[in-house]
């Protein structure tokens, strides 16, 4: 089953000069286990595309299918359930729940999705180098460590599709590369599809598929 | 530069206007409640001063007789012996539609005072019958045929007039007492030999209104202070949050070259302006509040102590100034911490949202220590203390200890709940509640205090009420009470009544100083009405028989407790009788004076001149007897009181007594709810960043809002549970310490769970009201607002 | 200056007396309100014979009345003293009623002057209740414990022998007054004119007392002897409206003569007096016969009081100058005035009493 299908999506935002069409009949398909990078200039609509894919924002027209489920047919609760069960979201910052420990954060989404596997979570934590940090709280971690927890939490729930919005944007280059490597590696290991939004061609180059967003449509990739 | 800095600082409030509104509302309400209570107190106190300066400024002594009467020729005798005394006649009289106290003075010989000064305005008219009364009293009197002039110098409920006119209206030829002028010539025969039966009442005694009502005012003040403290909680939390939120702005401003001194001054100026605005609003509200409550306070004081307090409030600039000073002081206190932190904030301190929380963990330990110390102090006061102020000290320490312990106990409870939680959302719910405790703790402490005060005072009042009703039913055993207008009428009534009623119990009393306290001695006829209906405290065996045999006295509980008497062991000195053993004590609620009871024959032997003030009548035909009394003796309906009427009257006085307490209780709870609301509203802005990840992880905004609401309710409910034992402790202290000290009676604690349930319901409603606006905002939050969290740098 | 303790509500009392407190500020009212109109009150009539003992008693139908005793005294060491004992009656209405309904108000003034000190005291009382009053027969005048009681023998005039007592905060006296001559009517057989417009009072005196008794002073009791003078006067409107006050003297000459003289200070000065021979024969002195000239003023409480006088009666070549025992003999009471003993010298010498009101 295709992890994500975006079918002729349009989205526009109101502005002083009338509506600005950010996404203009955009279509995209992501196969299970494949890694896609989405690049584009600032304001080109990369994040909007990601938000629409995650059901966080509605499209004006077009269809979004996540793991075979049509988002436009779902109400808010249905979309939330899809986020819990099939999606993994990683943002530039504010990924973690500040009141929960690293261990609780790691297990959180898997438990929400009802497929918590302690051994798998521990395995992920080991792989992410978080084994010794499990009792800590988010504010006691460095940015890189926080992002690793976010990745671990996302993958522990075994999502069909991981959506990452500039996950290393807040990190220095070295740390960012390490985190990105781990993310790509573990996503592939878990068999999840990945859509990575980034402004950096260097990072995009590490994905199998690359798309460039310009004037509301995708260029290149496939 | 200062202006630019101020503009930047103020921009925060423009964006967070609700937070500003809370800050101002908190300060204004705190000021309103405090200054309102102070206005009530100062109005009442000035009324006492009016009452005391009416007849004699300063400290004129009195000469009085235990019977309450002095024959007029005794006055002439003393004057002709050279003693400078001035006669006064006092008595209750129905004038128009009001029952008033007539005070008749002799202005030529009177010591200097407001009364003689009024008389001097036109002595000819005064001698001819001109009278003076408070404008309110004139209104209450309504139609009358007196030459009655209004004057604020006359206490409420009093009519001042010439002694001759007063004697006429009161149908007496006697005097009530004599003023003994402060300076006397030398060389006269001493009063001891000239008038051994007259009692020289030291200055101040007899004008003991101030002393008697102190406890009432202390009560009000305590409430005012509690409300003020609760209001300051609001201010403190608003100021603290604003500081947190503007931390980045402070950093930026300083990095841009604004000196720390200027920044601090700007913040202090901002606080000052807010305090002034809120203070003025608070004063207006306080005055309105006091005006609204004044009639009830006046009725309470009149009912409980007979204190003449007008029901109308006057504006007093000193009161306003002190109220404003209190506001500024409170604002300074609430803002001091923020300023201190600003002063110590490193210029490049990183944004550390959790740093505050961690610092507050240290604070928590400190808070726990202080709570413990206060608890120890409260226990020490319980064991070793005595006196009204100690009682209030004990209360203050115990309440503060309990309040400080609230966040600690709540945190512990939440940790416990978290441990027992199943499922990630539940775990998060408890963990998140715990994490936000420091920000809500002040509001929750305020809520706990308000709830505890409510439970405590409510339990006290309800306990008192239950005890009072039982007692009243027993006390009002007589079917009819008849008040003779004069000694002649009493003499005529007695045989008439004896022929027609099952029993006639004449009530006589004389004033006396008992164990150094102003008091009264009553006569009691040996009758089953008393034996059956007066349960005695600590009676000796066969107390009633021994009383009937003239072998001792009964005393009221007030005297018994204040003087530390012990039945069977102690004696009581009665003027004209000597020392008699104390046989027991009886409950005598609502009476500020000491009281002793003698058997009738013994009383009549000792005080043959004492008039019968009232007949209590046992009869099976109250209506018939009333009719025949009115017909045959022309008694007015005011002179005859039946059982039901007396009961209604007593109950209405009782209910009035606590109207003010209840009103303040409700207001305090409202302020606490507002404190919670303020805390939740200000928190809501910061909560978004904490909630957005959950939303992204698949919890709907609606569900999150529901959880927020649930959190507030859970915290409110836990606080209510905590408040329960604290409230009961408060009630126990009120009943067994404060009441004994203030009124002289100890009451059994009774619990009224239905009242608690009602309070819990109200509290939950208050919490729900406080939490629903922020929750509603969250539920309505569009995805855009939530998404912005992920892309906005703090 | 020492004066009364036990001050009552002074203003009330003074007003009760129907007298204005500050005569200087109310010149139109005359001193102490004595110039108010007499509506409802009886008016003295010329030619009315005085009746004794009835006229020793009160006349409630008249507005104002007094029993006024002064004495010039000396102790064994030759120290001079002066004593005043006065009972005033003032009526709010021209009648007497029982009890508190009585419209009569009483005021007592007592003064005691030494060379260094002046003591004064006052008492107030309502009539009708027995606190103060006067009975003609047997004669007693009293207010509180102050009294003037007749001890005269059967058949003699009641005022021939009096016991007098008064007490203030720091002084008291007990004196016996024995008359050595007859009662003397003033003016026209007791009708004393006070102004050119004809205001008048009934006025008689007993100027021939010898006095003995004890003064109680802060330093202890002092035995004294001397001479005394009683004035009895009642009226309803004794002063004209423009009259602000008076200067009055009673003089005892070394040769046994007595003289009373006063001037009423109005737009015009009105004087009157009586020359009394040692056997009690009075000669009324008409307006202008006696002349009062102030010689020296004393500053007392912001007032300039003429305490030294030249008094002249040109017809008899009488010209004397008076010297007060104590120039500060100010009666600082609810109604205040100067009253004290004096000695005089010049064409004649002797002792006397000076009263000055309206300063």
Describe the structure.
In chain A, α6 links the parallel β7 and β8. With 222 residues, chain A is α/β, with parallel strands linked by helices. Chain A has one domain: Rossmann fold. The model of chain A has no long low-confidence stretch (mean pLDDT 85). Chain A is globular. In chain A, 51% of the residues are buried. In chain A, the strands form two sheets. A six-stranded mixed sheet of chain A has the order 6-7-8-3-9-10, with helices on both faces. A four-stranded antiparallel sheet of chain A has the order 2-1-4-5, covered by helices on one side. Chain A is built from seven helices and ten strands. In chain A, α4 packs antiparallel against α5 and α5 runs parallel beside α6. Chain B starts with a helix and ends with a helix. Chain B is elongated and about 100 Å long. In chain B, α9 runs antiparallel to α14, α10 runs antiparallel to α21 and α14 runs parallel beside α22. Helices cover 65% and strands 13% of the residues of chain B. In chain B, strands 11, 12, 13, 14, 15, 16, 17, 18, 19 and 20 form a ten-stranded mixed sheet that branches. In chain B, strands 6-5-7-4-3-9-1-10 form an eight-stranded mixed sheet, with helices on both faces. Chain B has a two-stranded antiparallel sheet with strand order 2-8. Chain B folds into four domains: 192 residues, no CATH class; 144 residues, no CATH class; 214 residues, no CATH class; 140 residues, no CATH class. Chain C has 359 residues and is mainly beta. Chain C has a single domain, classed as AttH-like domain (AttH-like fold). Chain C is built from one helix and 23 strands. In chain C, the strands form two sheets. In chain C, strands 1, 2, 3, 4, 5, 6, 7, 8, 9, 10, 11, 12 and 13 form a 13-stranded antiparallel sheet that branches. In chain C, strands 14, 15, 16, 17, 18, 19, 20, 21, 22 and 23 form a ten-stranded antiparallel sheet that branches. The longest helix of chain C is centred in the N-terminal third of the chain and has 7 residues. The interface between B and C is large, with 38 and 33 residues.
């Amino acid at each position: 089953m295709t992890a994500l299908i975006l079918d002729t999506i349009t989205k526009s935002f109101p502005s002083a000069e009338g509506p600005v069409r950010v996404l203009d009949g955009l279509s995209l398909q992501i196969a299970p286990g494949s890694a896609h990078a989405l690049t584009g200039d600032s304001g080109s609509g990369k994040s909007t595309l990601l938000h629409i894919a995650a059901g966080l924002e509605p499209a004006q027209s077009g269809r979004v299918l996540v793991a075979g489920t049509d988002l436009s047919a779902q109400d808010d609760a249905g979309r939330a359930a899809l986020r819990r069960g099939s999606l993994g979201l990683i943002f530039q910052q504010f990924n973690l729940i500040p009141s929960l420990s690293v261990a609780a954060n790691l297990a959180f989404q898997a438990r929400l999705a009802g497929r918590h596997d302690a051994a798998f979570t521990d395995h992920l934590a080991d792989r992410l180098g978080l084994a010794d940090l499990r009792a800590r709280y988010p504010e006691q971690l460095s940015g890189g460590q926080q992002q690793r927890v976010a990745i671990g939490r996302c993958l522990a729930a075994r999502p069909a599709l991981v959506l990452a919005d500039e996950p290393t944007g807040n990190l220095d280059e070295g740390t960012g590369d390490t985190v990105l490597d781990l993310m790509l590696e573990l996503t592939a290991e878990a068999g999840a599809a990945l859509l990575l939004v980034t402004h950096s061609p260097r990072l995009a180059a590490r994905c199998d598929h690359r798309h460039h967003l310009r004037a509301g449509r995708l260029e290149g990739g496939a | 530069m200062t202006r630019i800095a101020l503009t930047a600082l103020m921009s925060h409030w423009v964006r967070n206007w609700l937070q500003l509104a809370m800050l101002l509302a908190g300060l204004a309400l705190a000021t309103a409640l405090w200054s309102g209570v102070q206005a009530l107190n100062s109005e009442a106190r000035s009324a006492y001063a009016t009452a005391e300066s009416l007849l004699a400024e300063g400290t004129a002594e009195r000469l009085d007789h235990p019977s309450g009467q002095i024959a007029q020729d005794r006055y002439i005798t003393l004057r002709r012996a050279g003693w400078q005394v001035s006669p006064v006649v006092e008595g209750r009289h129905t004038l128009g539609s009001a029952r008033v106290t007539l005070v008749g003075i002799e202005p030529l010989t009177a010591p200097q005072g407001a009364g003689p000064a009024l008389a001097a305005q036109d002595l000819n008219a005064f001698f001819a019958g001109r009278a003076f009364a408070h404008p309110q009293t004139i209104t209450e009197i309504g139609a009358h045929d007196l030459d009655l002039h209004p004057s604020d110098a006359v206490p409420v409920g009093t009519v001042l007039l010439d002694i001759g006119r007063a004697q006429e209206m009161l149908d007496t030829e006697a005097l009530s007492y004599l003023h003994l002028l402060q300076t006397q010539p030398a060389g006269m025969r001493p009063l001891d030999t000239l008038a051994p039966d007259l009692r020289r009442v030291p200055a101040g005694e007899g004008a003991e209104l101030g002393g008697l009502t102190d406890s009432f005012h202390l009560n009000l003040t305590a409430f005012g202070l509690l409300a003020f403290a609760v209001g300051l909680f609001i201010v403190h939390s608003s100021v603290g949050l604003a500081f947190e939120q503007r931390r980045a702005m402070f950093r930026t401003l300083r990095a841009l070259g604004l000196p720390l001194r200027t920044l601090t001054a700007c913040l202090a100026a901002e606080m000052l302006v807010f305090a002034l605005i809120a203070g003025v609003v608070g004063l207006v509200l306080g005055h309105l509040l006091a005006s609204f409550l004044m009639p009830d306070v006046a009725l309470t004081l009149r009912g409980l102590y007979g204190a003449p307090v007008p029901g109308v409030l006057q504006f007093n600039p000193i009161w306003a100034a002190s109220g404003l000073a209190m506001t500024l002081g409170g604002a300074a206190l609430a803002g001091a911490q923020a300023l201190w932190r600003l002063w110590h904030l490193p210029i490049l301190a990183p944004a550390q949202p959790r740093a505050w929380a961690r610092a507050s963990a240290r604070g928590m330990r400190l808070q726990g220590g202080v709570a413990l110390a206060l608890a120890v102090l409260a226990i020490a006061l319980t064991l070793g203390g005595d006196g009204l102020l100690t009682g209030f000290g004990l209360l203050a320490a115990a309440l503060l200890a309990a309040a400080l312990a609230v966040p600690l106990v709540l945190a512990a409870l939440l940790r416990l709940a978290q441990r027992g939680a199943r499922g990630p959302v539940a775990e998060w719910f408890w963990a998140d509640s715990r994490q936000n405790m420091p920000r809500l703790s002040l509001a929750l402490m305020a809520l706990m205090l308000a709830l505890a005060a409510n439970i405590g005072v409510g339990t006290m009042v309800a306990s008192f009420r239950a005890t009072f009703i039982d007692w009243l039913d027993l006390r009002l055993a007589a079917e009819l009470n008849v008040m003779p207008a004069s000694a002649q009428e009493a003499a005529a009534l007695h045989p008439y009544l004896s022929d027609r009623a099952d029993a006639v119990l004449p009530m006589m009393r004389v004033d006396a100083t008992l164990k150094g306290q102003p008091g009264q001695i009553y006569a009691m006829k040996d009758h089953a009405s008393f034996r059956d209906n007066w349960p005695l405290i600590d009676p000796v065996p066969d107390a009633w028989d021994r009383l009937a045999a003239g072998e001792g006295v009964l005393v009221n509980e007030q005297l018994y407790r204040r003087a530390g008497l012990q039945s069977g062991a102690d004696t009581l000195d009665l003027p004209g009788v000597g020392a008699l053993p104390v046989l027991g004590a009886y409950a005598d609620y609502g009476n500020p004076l000491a009281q002793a009871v003698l058997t009738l024959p013994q009383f009549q032997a000792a005080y043959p001149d004492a008039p019968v003030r009232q007949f209590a009548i046992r009869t099976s035909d109250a209506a018939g007897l009333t009719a025949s009394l009115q017909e045959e003796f022309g008694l007015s309906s005011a002179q005859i009181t039946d059982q039901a009427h007396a009961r209604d009257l007593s109950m209405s006085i009782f209910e009035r007594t606590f109207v003010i307490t209840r009103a303040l209780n409700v207001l305090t709870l409202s302020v606490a709810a507002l404190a919670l609301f303020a805390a939740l509203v200000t928190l809501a802005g910061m909560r978004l960043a904490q909630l957005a990840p959950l939303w992204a992880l698949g919890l709907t905004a609606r569900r999150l809002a529901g959880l927020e609401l649930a959190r507030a309710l859970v915290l409110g409910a836990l606080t209510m549970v905590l408040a329960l034992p604290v409230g009961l402790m408060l009630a126990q202290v009120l009943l067994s310490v404060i009441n004994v000290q203030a009124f002289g009676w100890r009451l059994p604690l009774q619990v009224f769970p239905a009242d608690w349930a009602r309070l819990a319901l109200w509290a939950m409603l208050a919490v729900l009201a406080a939490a629903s606006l922020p929750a509603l905002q969250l539920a309505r939050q569009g995805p855009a607002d939530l998404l912005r969290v992920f892309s906005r740098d703090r | 200056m020492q004066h009364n303790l036990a001050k009552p509500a002074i203003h009330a009392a003074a007003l009760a007396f129907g007298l204005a407190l500050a005569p200087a500020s109310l010149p139109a009212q005359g001193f102490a309100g004595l110039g108010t109109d007499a509506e409802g009150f009886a008016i003295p009539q010329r030619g009315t014979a005085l009746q004794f003992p009835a006229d020793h008693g009160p006349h409630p139908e008249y507005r104002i009345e007094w029993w006024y005793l002064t004495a010039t005294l000396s102790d064994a060491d030759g120290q001079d003293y002066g004593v005043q004992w006065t009972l005033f009656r003032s009526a709010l209405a021209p009648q007497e009623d029982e009890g508190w309904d009585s419209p009569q108000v009483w005021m007592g003034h007592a003064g005691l002057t030494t060379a260094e000190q002046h003591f004064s005291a006052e008492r107030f009382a309502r009539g009708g209740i027995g606190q103060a009053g006067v009975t003609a027969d047997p004669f007693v005048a009293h207010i509180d414990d102050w009294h003037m009681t007749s001890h005269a023998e059967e058949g003699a005039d009641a005022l021939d022998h009096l016991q007098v007592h008064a007490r203030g905060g720091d002084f008291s006296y007990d004196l016996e007054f024995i008359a050595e001559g007859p009662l003397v009517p003033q003016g026209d057989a007791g009708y004393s004119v006070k102004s050119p417009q004809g205001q008048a009072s009934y006025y008689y005196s007993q100027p021939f007392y010898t006095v003995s008794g004890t003064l109680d002073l802060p330093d202890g009791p002092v035995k004294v002897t001397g001479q005394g003078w009683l004035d009895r006067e009642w009226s309803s409107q004794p002063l004209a409206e423009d009259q602000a006050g008076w200067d009055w003297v009673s003089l005892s000459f070394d040769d046994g003569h007595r003289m009373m003289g006063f001037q009423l200070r109005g737009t015009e000065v009105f004087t009157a007096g009586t020359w009394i021979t040692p056997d009690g024969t009075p000669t009324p002195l008409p307006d202008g016969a006696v002349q009062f000239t102030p010689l020296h003023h004393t500053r007392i409480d912001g007032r300039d009081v003429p305490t030294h006088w030249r008094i002249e009666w040109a017809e008899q070549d009488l010209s004397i100058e008076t010297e007060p025992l104590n120039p500060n003999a100010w009666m600082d009471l609810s109604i205040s005035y100067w009253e004290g003993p004096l000695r005089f010298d010049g064409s004649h010498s002797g002792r006397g009493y000076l009263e000055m009101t309206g300063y």
